[in-house]
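Question: does this match?
>
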Amino acid sequence: MQELHDAPLAPLTTFRLGGPATRLVTATSDDEVISVVREADDTGTPLLIIGGGSNLVIGDKGFDGTALVIATKGFTLDGTRLELAAGEVWTDAVARTVAAGLAGIECLSGIPGSAGATPIQNVGAYGQEVSSTITEVIAYDRRTRETVTLANADCAFSYRHSRFKSDPERYVVLRVRFDLEDAGGLSGPIKYAETARALGVEPGDRVPLSAARETVLGLRAGKGMVLDPDDHDTWSAGSFFTNPILTDEQFAAFHARVKQRLGSDAEPPAYPAGDGHTKTSAAWLIDKAGFTKGYGNGPARISTKHTLALTNRGDATTEDLLALAREVVAGVRDAFGITLVNEPVTVGVSL
């Protein structure tokens, strides 16, 4: 277990932003993780959990407490059942399941971060979410001071949300278990229209697993969503805002605003999101509110490849990033009456 003091946190995040931690500990086993967490709880020391750092916005002043990097390793495959240690690199684990001929998470290729973060955010993209394949999450419960196993139904998964996210101070994810599908080397049914078009198939069709993975990686790379240290469009947290889910009444008011602002022929994106709810596109809202690709002239700007990504052009501060985020939120709210919600976790700062 490695321990550093007054340690920089920016290199541990995909934004490459944020000040130092008073203490930085890297744990390589579940026992080490639990030991550090218990010590922090016993002494009343603030604790920051870091996995891949792909969903973190850390304030410029840093973190006055213990930052714990979970660097545990473990990839166990038994038939279609997969267990991942929290510190496993997610996209590498996905590649190994594709190589093993198993379907269920192939469209989540290229997503940065660690395996332990996936149930917290209910990570999803291109028609797949981890909640559809997760069977159990093994976590340390800081309230009961025990290691617990939570079944899928106990995780309260919803769109980019979970029990872990709603109660962030309680659970530390240690391991995640999945049940994948052996479809004879084929992917799961392709659900996302953009992916189907790129593959030249119809939604619902299956394709070779490798084709699904490579297509998703290509789509992500085209939007600056695959990490590349030489490409500042990838110095981001991916999608900075979640897609709004509106009640029927809210959507009707939004629809009227769209017509008023963009003309009678304008139609916003609309996707069913359960009884009485409709999901619309945050990227569409941002673009139509006037924040186009590459928007900004400072060190933090909207990606030149995707309006949903806010980026560090190399010498930004966290305050630069937040100023841009606040401008976008205010602009979308003024234009369409919808308040965007940030997807990344903020530490020591807020919008």
